[in-house]
Amino acid sequence: MQKHYKTAKSMEKTKNKKLAKKKSLFIMIPAYNEENSIAEVIHRANNIKINNVEIITLVINDGSKDNTERLATESGADLIVSHKVNRGLGAAIRTGVEKSLENGADMAVMLDADGEYAPEEIPALIELILRNEADYVLGSRFLGSILKMKAQRRLGNLFLTALLMLFTGRRITDGQTGLRAFSKRALQNLEIVHDYNYAQVLTIDLLRKGYRLKEIPISYSFRKTGKSFVRFKSYALKVFPAMIKARLRKL
Three-state secondary structure along the chain? Predict the structure, then answer.
């Protein structure tokens, strides 16, 4: 009987494969007064499984006045960073990106804390990052399924997305999605110039810098508890000037 022996080289390859370092995925969850939903969102995010990927849940408590921070701790968030006062969603995401990179993130996902987006759909976004097919992935509600969305919010989303397409020259179906993923290169080079919000200015910034954008379908369910900070008129009046500023900035 012919015997097969492992060579030193093949043994070293096997050893290296076993010792291969997992990539780290930071799930950034910005939260402001989300005590009614934060625990479930963290629990579901912590139960995600992606092959050879370590998942770290990072909650950015943006000056909440309720029990958001305590419940995030009790629910098993891996990291919690708190702003003393409410600084805005853009500032919260900026803090999340900084803390993710400081802690060795290889990639990251931004996930709203309101329970409107399914954490279980994160692997589909990350797959495009892992396959090096994109640097920036948007989960599009309008390519997927929407269980419920108020008519004024739907119209507002379509209007702002149309503006975003005008500013970027790219076809985009959901410029305001609360589920999006980033490669490490995108994380290291993105800039958010607006504290109030981040969605449009971030997309403008990354596309201007040449990062690869893709969209995939996701599901969406209108929040069951709490209140959204978005009021279309005031939101648009703040976001539109920020989009102009982002578009005109020197790279």
Answer: CCCCCCCHHHHHHHHHHHCCCCEEEEEEEEECCCCCCHHHHHHHHHCCCCCCEEEEEEEEEECCCCCHHHHHHHCCCCEEEEECCCCCHHHHHHHHHHHHHHCCCCEEEEECCCCCECHHHHHHHHHHHHCCCCCEEEEEEEEEEECCCCHHHHHHHHHHHHHHHHHHCCCCCCCCCCEEEEEHHHHHHCCCCCCCCCHHHHHHHHHHCCCCEEEEEEEECCCCCCCCCCCHHHHHHHHHHHHHHHHHCCC
